[in-house]
Amino acid sequence: MKKIIKNIFKIFLLLFVAGIIFIAWANYSIKKESSEFVSYNVADVPETKVALLLGTSKNLNNGMPNAYFYNRIKAASDLYKSGKIQYIIVSGDNSTKDYNEPEDMQIELTKQGIPQDKIILDHAGFRTLDSVVRAKDIFGQTKLVIISQKFHNERAVFLAKENGMKAFGYNAEDVNKYAGLKTNLREYLAKAKAYWDLLFGVEPKFGGEKIIIP
Predict the structure, then answer these.
(1) This model's pTM is above 0.85
(2) Listing from the earlier edge strand, what are the strands of the sheet with 119-122?
(3) How many H helices and E strands in the chain?
(4) 165-195, pLDDT tens digit by residue?
(5) Helix ranges, 52-143 (H)
(6) Closest CA to 211 of 145, 160, 148, 136
(7) Sign of the CA dihedral with 144 first, then 129, 160, and 178 last
(8) What is the rounded distance in angstroms from the CA atom of residue 23 to the CA atom of residue 15?
(9) How far apart are CA 138 and CA 206, in angstroms?
(10) pLDDT 10s digits, 70-80
(11) How far apart are CA 146 and CA 157, in angstroms?
């Protein structure tokens, strides 16, 4: 019995170590492959018809404003006003009646002076993979500028390229390390999950009719 328990423990230990190695490799690989395609500088961003603004909640669980959200809004506004992009797809979660990331982003962007007819809503961007692939399959874009924080853009640009798209990430300002600790730790797993999804051919949760962006 002791021998069986010992063997089971060895198996779990090997799986644990393999998991750690896979997570470390996935993070290193995604960062390396996307490094030259993400920037904080507007001048580095190629002129592109459409940008994809990745969603997040407007407020934190404690009701305070979410800096990730507002920093992304500012980045999208700056990029639009620079003339580098013509349209913005705002893609996020709208899983419940009282939670609507795309509409929250649209409201804030219009406050920044961006015309509403230049903002396209994607209510089925439940995950980064969904947002990126839907930009191609539903909205017909094969070239994108993706707007989010750097850690997020690295993964989004990687996913876009793996799905046959040309993508560049314009980085919104990050939050301080203490406030973003939980998010940054979670990102290590998210990058590993990105590879996992590719290996197993995971697709967006929802499809839909194609939407033409003029």
Answers:
(1) yes
(2) 38-39, 166-172, 143-149, 48-54, 85-91, 119-122
(3) 6, 6
(4) 999 999 999 987 666 677 778 888 999 999 8
(5) 67-81, 101-111, 128-137
(6) 136
(7) positive
(8) 12
(9) 10
(10) 999 999 999 99
(11) 7
